[in-house]
Amino acid sequence: MNHVTSGTNTASIPSIETQAFAITHTNRSVDPILNAQVLGNLINADSALRMSTRHIEQVMDAVPQHMFILDANASLSFVNRAGREYLGPIDAVTLTERLRTTIHPEDFEGLLSAYRDAMAHGISIEAEARVRSKNGQYRWFLGQVFPLRDEQGRIIRWCVTLTDIDDHKASKEQAQRENLALREEIDAMAMFEEIVGTSPRLQAVLARATKVAPTDSTVLITGETGTGKELIARAIHKHSDRANRPFVSVNCAAIPRDLIASELFGHEKGAFTGALQRRIGRFELAEGGTLFLDEIGELPAETQVALLRVLQEKEFQRVGSNQTIRTNVRIIAATHRDLPAAIEAGTFRSDLYYRINVFPLEIPALRDRKEDIRLLVEYFIGRYASKSGKDIRNIEKKSMDRLESYSWPGNIRELQNIIERSVILCDSDNFSVDKSWLSAVRAPARPLSEEMISQEKELIEGALAECKGRVSGPAGAAAKLGMPPSTLDSKIRTLKIDKHRFYTN
After folding, report:
1. Which of 19, 60, 203, 435 could form a disulfide with 80 if both were Cys (CB 3.0 to 4.6 A apart)?
2. Of 32, 131, 126, 130, whose CA–CA distance to 87 is shortest?
3. CB-based contacts of 316: which residues, under 8 Å, 6+ apart?
4. Strand 66-71, strand 330-335: pairing
5. What's the rounded Cα separation, in Å, for the pair 492 and 443?
6. Which band of pLDDT confidence, cut at 50, 70 and 90, is reported for residue 9?
7. The whole model's pTM is what?
8. pLDDT tens across 179-199, in order?
């Protein structure tokens, strides 16, 4: 805001009566800084036209805004009637003391800094702050500071105006709250736009994901291959405080074991054969954002140790370096494996499991939410028909019956591939699926995890039967199965096997 200096040509100054009328009849909606400019003209008019101090104070008392006159050194000289009625007596002497006793603590530093800046540079400023009334209540005001200068341009006084904007501020904040609520409602509806389904089991997962998204908690997503674990991870990131930072995905099963550490943590030049230059790892790429570790159950043991350190200490080292790098990354992990079973088998660290299993989310298999199949079919038909420029209006009933009765061992990924293939081959507006595509793979009668547990239990019971219930020793079941006796004992307890029934005399 540019400051205004009074001119020295008295012929250019309107009459005292005209300027006084302009001030006293100013509407509240008019910028109060204009009042200060007019007041400056009145105060700085040539002596022949100068109003008496009493007259100026009378004019200021008629102004609806709170007005203050400060001397050049910022000592308070006059407060108009509106200011006195709102603030009550002002006993503080210095500018800092006055602001501290009248301004809300949260606004004090900012307003004091603005006032000091104005007085140091001789400029006009404005700032919003909550001002306390003599009754102890706070209201929002727009404060404006304006320098008053003499004929030589020297600052001789300061004019301060306070305009009540509390009602306007309240209306604006209410509108912002309503807009925010609307945006949150829209975001909640769109949060899982690519995760189609209305089944209770899926909706329960999405509700839990919505709860954990705004936090920084580590999430472990489990579920069979093709159930959409990465979609859930991306949705959690999108609705976290890290949404504007990177989402970096790593498939731990797709990277050779001897390169996974370099992929995650980076490496220095010459760290190993082929390391021709320094490489930034995924943790550094994801700084401030989210790192999605898909198929974390495939990590080799040495990398599990390094990852555990990152989770515990929030730091890591590049391969071939002794320099420690601090990191601020949220971890979302996923696996289709039974990690507790992997711990029992000695292939996954229990301490790492407890570090990543802070907030578990289990994604249901497609066969466990068959009511979503029609929605998914329609969704994928719409997507691929649009891409190929086809107009598909109907779905053959027999084909839909086949799709809904099939058990989908490959889950949503298998369904997506079949729909895309069928759309490519579709030559009419009637969608159909070749029945041979749904019979090539027979689905297990129960979930894969249950099949694996059942097979493991049968294998252990068979070994115990052959070894007559003996677990340890050269002739024991542990040796026969190729595992430590302590591990076999743990599995026997977990699977609730009664080894005593295999004892014989």
Report:
1. 60
2. 131
3. 265, 283, 306, 309, 310, 324, 325, 327
4. unpaired
5. 28
6. very low
7. 0.51
8. 544 444 444 444 444 577 788
